[in-house]
Give the backbone structure.
Amino acid sequence: METRFHTGTVVSAIGHLGLVLWVMVGDWLFADAPPDEVIVTSVSMISSEEFAALQAGATPTPVEEPAPVRPQARPEPVAEPPPEPEPEPLPEPLPEPEPLPEPEPEPEPEPVVAPPPSDVVQAEEEQTIQSESTEIQPTPEAEDIVAPDPVQPETEAETSDAPEPAVSEDPAAEEVIQQEPTEATVPEDTGDITQTEANVEQDAETGMTTSIRPRTRPQPAPETEVAAEEPPAEAPAESAELNVQPVDDTATQDAIEALLGEAADVPVEEASGGQDLPQGPPLTGGEMGDISSAIARRWNLGAASTDVLSSMVVIRVSFDEGGRPVDFELLESSGPSQAAIDNLYSIARRAVNRTHSEGGIPLPPDKFDTWRVLDFVFDANGMRVR
Amino acid sequence: MIRPMNKAFGALLALALGVGMLVATPVLAQSGPPRIVIGQGVIEPMPIAIPTFIDEGGAGEYAREISRVVIANLEGTGFFRNIGEEAHISRITSFDGGVAFEDWKAINAQVLVTGAVSVSGDRITVKFRAYDVFNGTTLEGAALQFAGTTQGWRRMAHKVADVIYSTITGEGAYFDSRVVFVSESGPKNARLKRLAVMDYDGANVAFLTDSNSIVLAPRFSPTGDRILYTSYETGFPRITLMDVATLRRQTLDEQPGTMTFAPRFSPDGGTVVFSLERGGNTDIYSLSLSSGQLTQLTNAPSIETAPSYSPDGSQIVFESDRTGSPQIYVMPASGGEGSRISAGEGRYGTPVWSPRGDYIAFTKQNAGRFHIGVMRTDGSEERLLTASFLDEGPTWAPNGRVLMFTRETAGADGQTSLWSVDITGRNLKQIPTNGPASDPAWSPLLP
């Protein structure tokens, strides 16, 4: 168990590191396309007849005649009937006089909808626009895809053992992360913090956490609207509000709901020490850190032997509703001798009891179902005396 | 047409990567209650409360003195910090009475020791009980009673402290033990030396020899009933065996033209290993005390000395300058070339095998400084515990976790004294003796 926990942490750490490196190094490896040159020019409309007349005329039209409107995102070169169609619009077609012999090629109306940035605007004068400008037009599709997709990683992060979600650097995602995750999203992640019997079974059936990839591109719903939702809502509709599609598979979703319903009907087991699987909302990373720090301060190995300092124990502690430890169980241990292990077990129990006596263990009152049973790892191997 | 990657697309892929990792993580995570890793704890003396033992009849000052010795023993390890009685909220008025754990928790006492002493004639009875305050239980194995003559009241206090120490720390006991050493007097250039024995903490000093001849390097037998030492009584160094109870002495292996020194007992006490100098060459020999058979264990043109058996008697660690400077070697107990285990810079000497068999203590000289150090039996994990003008001659406590050695200060008026330190380098302190002292040798735990 110790190893799997450690393995999961390692995998998550590697993934996060790769994410950071990708964003940091991506610019170097994949250089951005040259920034779009924003050129603003005046545009006037001409009729099709006029345009045809222009085309028919071999000689270029006078400069003062407005250039034809060119649609965006049309990669093919602008109307070049006589000459050979340019195989690639990238190289400057200026050398080819046929298409537009006039010195100024057809102006490229930049995204008309976007007002020109103030630092680039030179609207009062026309500027030559190279026909290649079609290549530097933005790709709105990609941007649309990127923008509103944050909620899923937030869901994952909330239920992981890592203290911080820190999954997506998408600002939109971060906003969503600040919101309370719904219980509907939590069980899907099979985190060890919150489990229901239903979720455990579900995971076993699927062999993997259910996919939380959106069926469709989530709508860019305003986060504020989502924030107003009741955090503990369980309905899948809640996920939809957060732009999360818990599952793609409707059948799986139905199965989840069915199992949740069964779980609700299962009588609650005896409180103190009887429930091994927490049923409440997960402890946050901060809460777990507070508990760890409080106990660590009372975990005194000053009188421990060198063998104890080479030992490790994992103890399971059951608490009553008042946060008082009522039962201890040694789950795992390692060390050079049984005496050292026994000693460390005693020291660990003392640390927990002492923490309770001296101000109490910082257990969140509203999550008793989660912390009624906790496992603590006391690894003295790292505590070497100089 | 391939779109060039831009920042937006890179961010999308990074996002997908992160989602994928987080999806995978719960799969690898464990199921069950939340698991919380307790981070770095603290290493500080354990607060302990030891109210004065109750006088249950005729104990007089014995109860107070026994309590004092117990407190001194535990605090002297550096592992415990006694909470003075002035801070106690509750009072222990009856040995078998209840304990108000909350009162002891309030003063942050993690362990409470209660005791009682009664004396009848020359018989003294000491009983004690140790409690784990925060667990609210009696420490298992820490509720005992000792009885003996009043002369042995100090040993009883040591035994009480031994039980508490062993129970809490898990280490072996060592308080109820003795140390034989060389008591020195006079100026440095005309030093008078006598064999003396004391409790491990410097109390109860008794002299074993007079100062008529120089004595060096005393060593206890495994049972503590005999002492080996080097005596210059004849003008030449000779190994002498002394019965501690009767003080009768016997010179071992008197061979003309030879010098013998640096003796040690084998773990079974039936063999003595020592250095013998003959014809300008020094090698290591063993002598059976029962048969008198002498066996040469090394045969080299260099100086081989300071042999010490491993606890199982199968190997011997010794000092040799065969490479040009003194280094540490290990050979089979039956003899042989030996393999070098010391590897650092400087000179190594006086190796001593730990009673637990896991470490070898030594003296090291390097860059004008002397050190007491320990290393694993293969020479790895060398760790220097002290540094001074002159530290030498370590000896192990019975539990193999504390060392005692000689420290000498510089100058014409330099004095020798005894110091102790644990193998982690903590708790370096001087052992109180009546005057200069050197060459300590720790006895086994007294029966």
